[in-house]
Structures are given as structure tokens and as C-alpha cells.
Amino acid sequence: MAKEFKKIGILTSGGDAPGMNAAVRAVTRYAIRRGMEVYGIYEGYKGLIDGGDGVKKLAPQDVANIIEKGGTILYSARCLEFKEEAGLKRAVDVCHQIGIDGIIAIGGDGTFRGASDLCKRGIPCIGIPGTIDNDITCTDDSIGYDTAMNTVVEAVDRLRDTCESHARCNVVEVMGRNAGYIALETSIAVGATAVVVKEDLNYKEEAVFEKIRAGRAAGKRNFIVIVAEGVENYSEGLAARIQEQTGVETKFARLAHIVRGGSPSLSDRLLAARMGIAAVDFLLEGRENVFVCERDGKMVATDIQKAIVIDKMYKSGFTPSVKYPEKELAAYSPAEVEDMKAFCAMREQEVKELLAISENISNY
Fold first, then answer.
1. From the candidates 16, 50, 101, 133, which is the catalytic residue?
2. pLDDT per position as a tens digit, 109-131
3. Number of structural domains in the chain
């Protein structure tokens, strides 16, 4: 059912991602065009709790010339207070004082949990997935992911030049939180000798050594091994073992937060614009407690709580800290549970296909 909104808020929360500014711009300009006032909420949910200068009205010119900027002009901050009932109550009170009757929240799964909590307290919210990790199972892509991968590719291409000059191997650790998507796709794009991700339950370290030995015997001078940061406390040790087991001088590089920054790619700018407009439309359609999800190139609304359960179902297969959501699944019908299982199986198959591609074209 269509709803009328006079004032909406927009915030970015959690880790920053290239393209967040493009999404802020799209939401602000489109919402104003649809007759609403837009309020920027600074430093995520912290700004919503603080009120005052933490919430400012935005005009179209306030979001001019930001589409090419990395990071987020609305800033971001962790807010433990928002997880407490007192903090949530304060945030709702600030919304009522200003007259904000809906919020669009850009971020990852933690951001969506916060948005869901606000929905339960009478503030309709729509989420937009903005995270370089692309670790929100229900969407094909999240804002910032494409740019992050391009940053990794550029950095690894530079490292390979030095590897070739000095006949070395480089073990490169990339971001991605508990998901291996950045590592998987960039390993294919840079022609890595091997990739190490938590999702690969059949990974064997000796196979990596053997590839490098075979490559060196065939005259290959450079080797790249990409490791996802979710494989904790592993990368540096692997570099040392490669050198010890193969005789190839091996260096370690942790790209860390350099992967987060930078001007967003065309793909991320376009995705941000499409998701921003969809988020406003969903809000006006009377939807809430959903986030904008890209599926096969289309923007669809996905229930936040259901998405969180699917996320747990999928990640429990390779992340010990994530428990299979048996109790949560009791709230869904058998048919819904089967559909959720099928969706997780599809994501697992995608990863297997990427691993197979990496293996089939990286003899050395």
C-alpha cells in the first residue's frame, strides 16, 4: 500500500565502501524530486542518537560533486549504544522530534539489523547493501565490491612486476571479512597460482607448493597466491612455508584498508544509483524492514530478517563462529525453508565454479 512521507533520513553505517556517496546522492535527489525533505544522519546510528548537528537537512547542492568520491560524506561510526534499548529509544525520539518518518540505511548486515530494530519501533526503514565484502548472501552484488576488486587487481599487477624481476612469489592477503569473494574473483583476474578461502573445504597446502615447484622447473619467474583475510592468522605463515618448501623467495603483502578507499568504478556508481532510486520507491510503496537486493540484474525487496537467516544458513557451512539457525527456521513454512536451502545451494555452486575456473587456468 502506497504511503506518504514528508521527511526521510539517510545514513551510512559500518565499514565505508566506494559508491556510498553515489547512493547518498541518488537517494537525496530522487526523494526531493518526489516531494520529500531529506536529512543526512552523520556517523551512522550514533548521529541519530545524538541528534542536533548529527542530523542536517540536505539540499540537491549538498550532494553535488560527490559521485566520484570514495568513503562517505555522512561519515560512519560504530555505535554500541544503539544496541541497547535506551539508545534505540533515543534514536526514535530524535526521529519524532525532527519529523523523520522513514530512514534509508546504507551498509552491511549490522546496519540492516539496526534498521530492523527501528522498524520494530515504528520507524519504517529500507536498507541498501554497501560493503566491499559482498558478503550479504541475498544480493548478487553490493556497492563497493567492484571497486575493491579493481583496487586489488591494480595492486597485484604492480607486485607481479617486482616478482618477475626478482624471481619471487608474493602471498597477498585481501579484505572480505568472512567471505572469500574478493579473493576468488581477483585470483582469476590476476592469474594467481593459487587462492585460499574459507569456502574451499578441499584446500591442500601441499598442492600450492607443488604448483610453485612445477612452475619454477618450467622456467616461471613470478608467482602470486591470494589469501582471503577470513582465513585468519594464515597468510604470513604460508609465505614462510612456501619459501621453505619450494626454495622460491617469498614476500608477504597485506593490502588491508587500501582496498576500501578510492573513487568508485562505473559499475559501483551505476549500482548505487539504481539501488538508491529503488530504495525510495520501496519506501513510497509502503514496504519496510527490507533491503534492496540485486538479483539477475533486477532490483528486488528482500525481508531483512529472512536475509539474516539465509546468511547464517550459508555461512555456517564454512565459518565455525556462525551457527546453523535451527530456531529461526521454525518461523518459516517447510516450503520457505526449502527455498532458502536452495538459495544457499546456488551460492555454494557459484563458489565451486569460481574455484574450478581458478584451478583450471592456473597450472603454475
1. 133
2. 889 999 999 999 999 999 999 99
3. 2
